[in-house]
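Changelog note: in this version the structure field was regenerated for every chain. One regenerated record is shown below for reference.
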Amino acid sequence: MALTMQGNNPLSYRHKKFDLRRPRNDELELQIKEELLARLDTTGYNSASDEEEDTSSQCSSLMSLPKRRRLNSTVYDGSNGSESASSSHSLPPSISPEALRDICKYHGNMVRKFPKKERSPKDQDRRNKNTIACRMSRRVKKLEHLAIEEQYKEFTLQHLKIVEQSMRATAYFNHLNQLVKHEQSTKSSAPASVPVQVKNFSIDYLMNGIKGEQC
């Protein structure tokens, strides 16, 4: 708390938080909002035909925009916050351009038809900016769903390849096991070999043989 002298009031209360410097993260948020408003001001709000022509350009510029953050969110480091915001919208390049064109397509039934209400130019400008922001956030969500769907398809194909390889390996192992069992069964069922009589080649045997031949 601090007491300061301001104007005619001799003592006026001034909280200490107003004397401190605003964090860098708030400045980054203000810069992001200013860039967003500057980009939104370049687009037209007059007719639905203009919106149909601008949706493709808005969708292409949407990929480079960081994620909007609320003012009452927790304060992080400025560099880490910008890196996480840019990485959160990094989408895989496998999304087809037809799907992106379908997301950015303007649908006439999305327009709510109500009687026009008299508004000040400031209120009307705020309303137009909120409308554009809602459309952009809706398209960002659709892009995220498309990215998740593409990742699911890719992981499913990888899983099927792994399952196929495991099934092939299991069938090969079973076939080898059957061959080994068959070979063992043929060895056990084969007839016993006749023992060969081993001749005695001693000196006496040889001498008797020679005598028999002489007689």
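Spot check on this record: Residues 24-67+92-111+120-179 form one domain. Residues 43 and 54 are 7 Å apart (CA to CA).
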